[in-house]
Every structure is written in structure tokens, then in C-alpha cells.
What we know:
The complex is a heterotrimer. Chain A is mostly helical.
Amino acid sequence: MDALLFMIFAAIAVICGINLVVQTHPISSALSLVGVMGALAALYLLLGGEFIAAAQLVVYAGAIMVLFVFVIMLLNAGTEKKLTVRPLGKYLGAPLLLLFFGMMAYLIQRILPESSPVVFGAFQSGTAAEIGKSLFTVYLLPFEVTSVLILIAILGAIVLARKEVD
Amino acid sequence: MQLWLIPILPLIGFLLNGLFGKRLAKPVINAIAVGSVVLSFLWVVKTLNALGAFSGGLEETYKEHYYTWIQSGALNISVDFAIDRLTAVMLMVVTGVGALIHIYATGYMAHEGGYYRFFAYLNLFMFFMLILVLGANFLLLFVGWEGVGLCSYLLIGFYFLEKFATDAGNKAFIVNRIGDFGFSLAIFLVGFHFNSLDFGTVFAQIKGMPIEASAGIFTAISLLLLVGATGKSAQIPLYVWLPDAMAGPTPVSALIHAATMVTAGVYMIARTSQIYLHSPWALDIVAIVGLTTAFVAATIGLAQNDIKKVFAYSTVSQLGYMFVGLGVGAFSAGIFHLMTHAFFKALLFLGAGSVIHACSGEQDMRHMGGLRKYTPITMVTLLCGSLAIAGFPYLSGAASKDLILEAAYEHAPWMYWVGVFTAGMTAFYVFRAFFLTFFGEYKGKAAAGHGHGDHGHGHGEPHESPAVMWIPLAILAVLSVGGGFINIPHFLEPIFPLQEGEPARWLEYVATAAGLGGIAVAYLFYVVSPALPESLANSFRGVYNLIYNKYFVDEFYDAAVVEPVVDGSRQLLWRVGDVRLIDGLANGIGSTARGIGGILRRGQSGYIRSYAAWVLAGSILAIAYIGFIGASR
Amino acid sequence: MPLGPLPAAVPPSWYLTLSAILFALGVLGFLLRRNIITVFMSIELMLNAVNLSFITFSYMLKRVDGHIFSFFVMVVAAAEAAVGLAIILTVFKNRQTLEIDEVSTLKN
Lengths: 166, 633, 108
């Protein structure tokens, strides 16, 4: 059962990812990205990350992607003329990518230690309570720093996007 | 006993005058400069008295240790001052004659610019000279050695606006440096072989070692030390700087180039006598060098017209005598002659200065004459000095010179005859100078009312020097006359054992006769029939030209050494080495950096996607490294 | 990788491989697309792939730290998206274009 679930959601993720790259209109790409995120949320659930799955859907798919869609509509970004590629990208990018992917796959197979298959429910520490415990004790400093980071991001966004003062 | 006070007092004088002299009034400068040397002299007297030097004491060396200077492995060099009888003689001469010359200089330099600078340098010179004399190891001696070389350079080039003065200063320093190179090598050899540079330690070790029959370590060290000595004491082949050094003010010539600095070489050989006694071959070389120098310099002195040049060559010649004394094993005779020479040569130079001052800067003897009317005191004192150097019986010069000649006869009779002939020439040229200066009619320009040369003011007729100048002359005259009765060889007996037996009496008589003969010939040439020298010179025009032009030695050195070095530097070291190699390297680095930068610049294209591609490539490299070669292999 | 009849559950390495695929797709989009916003979204895709990696490792090591990291990645992605889009807005206001190639004034 777990394998089947994995296959389904993995397929969704990959197909949406390819769609993201291939589509000409940004809106289509944005919607495909939402699809990827949804599939990934399901995979997180399989891996026992309940909190993260929820956060993914709420924050990532629900807030960030909405922001993206807003901006696309605001800027009225039209269809790209053509999927033009610079010769350098065509002849260099694809082989490099292939090489990268091949390397990663090989390394994953070779280096990773033997471990049991992923079973839903095998990992119990992904609950909100566990994450909260860890976040406010061990990772307290990064937590605080991240809040400052968000503050700075807010300030930056406001400064950048406001109207010119005349 | 506070030996350190002896050199420190002049050093304080140097610092005070050097740093603040510009703002001080002349009497204050005088007080500081003269006072420091006089105080040093008094302290020397007091110290020697306390050590018992004047009453038969001071048999052993008295040493004071101050601090350890260099401590490196087995080599331990400390700042030590030591006094033995040899040092005592040197100290008295240096501080005593130095004090007199300082007093004289206050009068002589009264109208010169850079007054405080002059006395600052002079005090600095006294400091270094005293370090040289008091030093208890080779390195301290070398420090003093170099220091007096520096002060000599500074003082020769005192009138630094004149090119010939600065050239002379350069020449002195460079030629000295060649000698110092030999000296340094000698010091290295000593340190290497005896693991110490301390005089006491080294000589104690040497005492037990056998005398060398042929070339060996003692010969090597001795010859290298001799190279240093020929540089400092102006012997062949490194004497060429001394006549040029007359470009400095006359008190400088008197103090440095007559009485003290040039005797440093003699002192050094006497100090290291143990090394020389173990290498008879080197001693022979010393004697031959000395004798040759004495003879050649005397011949050159016969034809010079500048009064200071005459005395300069005379100094070279007399130093040759001292070397002869050392070389035949009569070390104490050499030191004795050093002392008497200090007296009468300083007197001669100061007297010459007085004469020059009287003639308002004129130094050419052909423009002097008849000065006995105008400068009687100078004449009397100079007469004492001239008689002393000529070897007049019972005067100081005769006492020491006769001792040297007697020892030379014991060693090798031909040296004695050459020495006697040179003595005759010495008497001749000194009295030539004397008669030309004081007899006959005054041929100078001062009567017309203008002066030039190293003295700035014009006067009317020649005039006698002020008291501050003729009193030291008088004191030196007394010393020149009576100095022979100070029995230095007897005093130095603990260090330089005297030889047994009385030398033959006739040696002394022949030497004296040579001296008197020289005076007589000079009298004949320059008082009785003044036309004689001219005609003689014309008959022997070739020889005369040769000695008048100092055997063209300077020209030879110029062509053989100076020109090749300068040319070689210019062509090879500058054009190739500096411009091509070093500049090329520096510029090459710069242009290579620029070239690489030009290539790397292409990477900054401004296209974001190419940046991304580079990032990807880099990350692939990193992953490959980590995955296959690195940690997680 | 065992082929043949589908097993009941998959080993974690498959998840990592999926993560690599998604990452590669993200890079592809980043290199090939011309629209700025699409490029940005490719970046988000890459971040998501990395998140999946973290969670997988967290499962394998039986620790919760991977989740924490993933959490922080999300926070930073949010902040970055906000600022990045603001910049895109500004660029659009000034250049009137969303072509990534035309936003380069750094001469070669």
C-alpha cells in the first residue's frame, strides 16, 4: 500500500515538475507548482512528517503560491514568445544536468546504508509536539534569528514596492 | 674603576653638541667639546694612577665586564674594557693629544660654518677611538675601527659643498672598507678557530701553540689583519686615501690622520702580537710592506708643493717605520714611535694650520716664505717638530726611530740601510717645507688683502695665531723635544719582552748623520741657492715627474679598479640585473595578473542564466569530490 | 533497485532519487526559461526538492532535526519570495519587461 501511494504521488510530482518547465504561460507554471507541493505534502505524510506536511500546504501552497499568482496577474505577464534557449544552454545545460542527476543517483545507491522500507507510521516524532520541543530548546537561536529575518523581509518588501514619494 | 667613563664623556659631548649645538653659543660649544675630552684625559690619568701605572704597577691586564652582547653557541662576546700597559700608552696619547687639538681647533675653526657640527664629529671620533683602544675583544675593536672610519669620512667631507672634499671622504671610506673586509675575515677565522673573540682567551690559547714554519692558520689571520691595517694605517697598497684626506680641516688632519686613527692599525698589530709572533713569515711581510711604504712615500714627499700634502706623505712614511718596527719584532719600538710621532706630527700639522691661517688660507708653499718675521712662535714650535722628525739627537723622534733602525739591523741589515736613506729623505723634505715657509721673501697674496681656500676671511699681512692656537703648539713642542725620555720600551716590557744586548753604537751615529745630512741638503737647496732645486728637477725631468705625480698610482687604481667596477655595475648590474630581471619580474607579475583578469572578466557576463550554469558546474564538481574522493567515499 | 513485482513499501533511497529528479527539473527550468517569474518558481521547486531530502533523512536517522531544518527552509523561502517578488515588481516598473536576458546592463 505504501509503495502504491509513493508511486502515485511521485508520478504526480514529476509530471507537474515537467509541466512547470515546459509550459509557456507563467500561470500554468504556477499551478503546476501547486500540484508539486501538494504531492510532496502527501509524501511528507508517508514519511511521518505530519506537521511539515500541514505547514507545506498552508504556508507554501497556500500563501507563497498565492503571492506568486497575485504578482503574475498584477504584472499581466503574458505568454512567452518561444522557449528560446541560448546555444550555450542547449549544448551545455542538458549534459551537465544529466551528469548531475546521474551522479546523484549513483551516489545515493552506493553510499546510503541499508535501511528498512518506508512504512507509514514508522516515524512517530514528526508531531507538532516533538517539533515544538526541539524548536524551543535546541534550536532556539535559529528560531529567534529567523523571526528577525522575516521582519527584515517585510521591511524590504515594503520599501521596494511602495510608490515613489514625490 | 669606571672605565666606561673614558669613552662616554666624549660621547656625551657629541650628543649635546650634535643635538643642541645649533642653538648654543660658541663658548658653550667650546666648553662642551673641549671639556669632555679634557675630562676624559683627566679621568684616564686618575684611572692609570689608581692602577699604579705611573709607579710600576699594572703588570697584569685590568678588565671590566659590562654586559654580554652576543651569546651564540660556543661564542660569547661581551662588552668588556681592558687596560694593560699598551692600552695605557694609547689612552694617554689619544686623550692627551686629542685634548690639545680640540683646544687648538676652537681657534682655528672660529670663522667656519658648521662649528657645532665639527666639534660633534670630533667628539664622536674620540668616543670611537677610545672604544677601539679600550676594547677587550676583537669585535669591540672592530666597532671602534669602523666608527673612526665613519668619523673620518664625516670630517674629511666636512666642507661638503666642495666636490673634492666629498670625493676625498668617499675615497677614504671605500678604501678603508677594503681593508675592513680583510679584517672581518680575520675576525671570523679567529672566532672559528679559537671559539672566542676575547683577547685574553685567544692569546692564552695561542701561547701554547707551536710557531708556524710555513703557511697555516696564523699566517692567514696575520695577513688578513695586515690587510685591515694597511687600509686604516695607509700602507701600500691602500694608502691612497690619506693624501686626499687633507681636504678636511687641518685639526682633523692632525688628530685623525696623524696622531690617532691612522695609528689604529699599528695598535692592532701590536695588540695581536701573539698571532704575529707565531708566523714569522707574516712578520716579514709586515716589515717589507712598512719599509716599502716608508721609502715610496718619502720620495713622493720630496716634490709636493702643498704643505699639508708633504706632511700627509710624511705620515704615510712614518707609519711605514712603525710597521717596520713591528715587523722586525720590536713591537715596543713601534709603539714608542707611535707616541713620538703623535707628538711631532700633530705639532707639524697644527703648525701648518697656523701657517695656513697666517696666510689666510694659502696652502701652496711656493706662495709662502719669510714667515719668520710674522709668525715667530709658530716657527719655533715647527722647528722643534721638524728637528724631532728629522732625527736630531736626543729629541723624541730620534729616540724612537733609532730603536726601530737598530732592531731592523738585527733582523736584516739591508732594511737598516733603506731605513737610513729614508730617514735622510724625511729630514730633507721636512726642512724643505720649513725653509720654504719661513725663510726667503714672502711670496704670498695675503698682502694684497684677499684670502681663499679653507679659511674664509681676508687679512692684511700674515699674522701670528691667537693664543688658543699657539699654546697647544708650545705644549706639543715640549713633548716633541722631551718625549724621547719617556722610556716606553721599558714601560711595555711586561707585554713585549726586550731583546738582550746593546746594539752597535755606530748604527745610531749613521742614522743621525743621515738626518743631519738631509737638513744640510735642504738648507743648501732652499736657503743658500734657491735656483738649485729647479735645475735639478729639469735635469731629471722624468724622475721628477714620476714622483711629483705620486707614481701615477691613483690613475692606475682608477683605470684598473674603479672604472671596471663602475662600468660593470652600469652595464651588467644595472642594465641587465636591475632593469631586465628585477623590473621585468615585477612588471611581469603585474601584466600576468592583468592578462588573467582579462580572461576571467568574460565570466562576468551579466547574464543570470550563465551564472546559474556556472553554479551548477561548480556544485557538480563539489559533489563529485565529496562523493568519490572525499569524506563519504 | 529491485525491479519486478511491486514491493509493499519502498526504500528511502527512492525518495532521495525523487528529490534529485525534482531538483534537476528545477535547475532545468532555471537555465532554460526566460520569464523572471518562471525562473523564480523553478527556484521554489528546487527548495521543495531539498525539503523532501531533509524529511527523508530525518526518517532514516529517526531524528526530528530534519523536520526543523525543513521548517526553516520554508520560512526562508517565504521571506525570499516576498522580497524577490518585490524586486521583480521594481524591475518591471523600471524596465517594462520580464525577460531575464534584457535585465543585464553589465557589459561584456
